[in-house]
Amino acid sequence: MGVLGFGHVNLRAERSLLDQMLQFYTEVVGLTLGPRPPFARFGYWLYQGQHDLIHLIEASPEEQRLVHVKTTIDHFAFVCRDRSAYEQKLQQLGLSFQTAVVPQTHQYQIVLQDPAGNRVELNFAHQ
User: Fold this and answer.
1) Most exposed residue of 5, 33, 93, 107, measured as fewest CB within 10 angstroms of its CB?
2) Could you tell me what percentage of the chain is helix, strand and coil, using 3-state DSSP and rounding each to the nearest 5?
3) pTM here?
């Protein structure tokens, strides 16, 4: 018995926002659109290598999914490389972001928001 790792995060939204999130997580973060079982509800699975990290699922029309609200989830963090390439891409896309350095570990962080308002953290090892 025991946890072996993190599986995935499932984000639900109406279709137009879902498509914006697909674009953000593939073009900005760098995940890859990959295979998904034939569920009844429309959606996308986004991968890093062979691991599906984010499931984007279309909310049904009767669902009231709140966006840009405070929840207990503060952010999603990704382990990344090539910090300067990310910063250049974000600047080219006109996306606002903040940076920080973690005390003691000197890990560099880029913090931004996805189209639904979720905070996303891109983490880079001390170089």
Assistant:
1) 5
2) 20, 35, 45
3) 0.88
